[in-house]
Amino acid sequence: MHFTGTVYRNPYWPTWPLLEITQGCTHNRCRFCTMYKDVPFRMNPPEWIEADLRELAQSDPDASTIQLLSANPLCMTYDKLAPILERINHYLPKMEYIYAATRVTDIRNKTVDELKSLREMGLREISLGVESGDDQTLERVNKGYRAADILEQCGKLTEAGIDFWMTFLNGAAGKEHSAEHALHSAEIFSRCKPMTVGTGGLVLFPGTPLLEDVARGTFTPLSEKEMLIELKTFVENLTCDCAFITHHTVSGRNLTGPDFLRRKDRIVASLEHEIRHGDLDRAAAVRRSKRSL
Ligand code: SF4
Q: What's the 31 CA to ligand 1 centre distance in angstroms?
């Protein structure tokens, strides 16, 4: 199999086969991200993809699920992507569920009809590292789109019947804009109605522009307590029913699971408990020990 650089798989499906169809990230300019700094974007040559599918057909002929790599494989136009999905179905005839992480901007170059066609070929679920629904924060971290783009592109996914995750990056706005980041994100996420909302806490990795902003005094990171307060504001204002998962460093009980609206009060109570009684020094140490998003 061809794999380039560090492989990031969805941790919730640790056994799914992986197929790399692109390398790196077309954007590679988010101001907090180091994931693909050493991997220039490139589409994998068709002969690599064909060889990898032949190998998967040998090793896992009954595979019904697969994750496409790398950062944003759906950047390809429909005309390039559809033949790859056709080859997946050819080599793995029991395929039912194709998943990929990708960028909001990757949906722009596809019509709803093209998205529906990709769904019929098995593309069922997409993870969008949205990070925020607040324009000032999106600009601050250089995501390369605005809240209106999120609404428009997620609307197309809904119309096409493709399920999607949206992630909220807790702490991305710093102290300066924390409340707006939480409130505007909750509003945009609620309007998009994703199947899953994931939250992760900001880590300031060496070499990132955001860490340089900290040194210059133009970005003030949240403390662990302030991260939790921001997350609580986000949760309190999130109104869509979805699964809710968190990779937050504080291991509050009752945070991750399905049926968000039914569990919302318990999640808020758990966050309140962590804010008052959590071991925030330990949480800060866990965050400092992280080496990658
Ligand atoms: S956060 Fe995602 S979109 Fe942004 S540079 Fe990293 S991999 Fe690319």
A: 9
Q: Among 33, 34, 150, which residue has the most ligand 1 atoms within 8 Å of its CB, making it the best to mutate? A: 33
| Across 210-226, average pLDDT | 96
If we measure between CA atoms, which residue out of 32, 9, 228 comes closest to residue 142? 32
CA-nearest residue, atom 6 of ligand 1:
33
Give tens-digit pLDDT for 127-159: 999 999 999 999 999 999 999 999 999 999 999
Number of domains in the chain: 1
Q: Is 130 in the pocket of ligand 1 (CB under 6 A)?
A: no
Each residue's pLDDT tens digit, 78-105 = 999 999 999 999 999 999 999 999 999 9
Cα torsion through 213, 228, 102, 291, rounded to 10: 60
Q: Does the beta carbon of 27 lie inside 6 Å of ligand 1?
A: yes
Q: 9 lies in a domain?
A: no
Q: Is the pLDDT of residue 253 over 70?
A: no
Report CA(176)–ligand 1 centroid distance (Å).
23
**Which contiguous run of DSSP H or E holds residue 196?**
strand 196-201
Say if pTM beats, i.e. exceeds, 0.90.
yes
Do the domain assignments include residue 146?
A: yes
Domain assignment of residue 99, yes or no: yes
Look at ligand 1, atom 8, and give the residue with the nearest C-alpha.
Answer: 28
3-state helix, strand, coil in the chain (%, to 5): 45, 15, 40
- Residue 155 located in a structural domain: yes
CATH classification of the domain holding 30: 3.80.30.20
Domain extent, residue 47, equals 18-289
- What phi-psi label fits residue 23: left (phi over 0), alpha (psi between -120 and 50 degrees) or beta? beta
Spatial contact of 99 and 13, defined as CB atoms under 8 Å apart: yes
pLDDT tens track for 8-54:
998 888 889 999 999 999 999 999 999 999 999 999 999 999 999 99
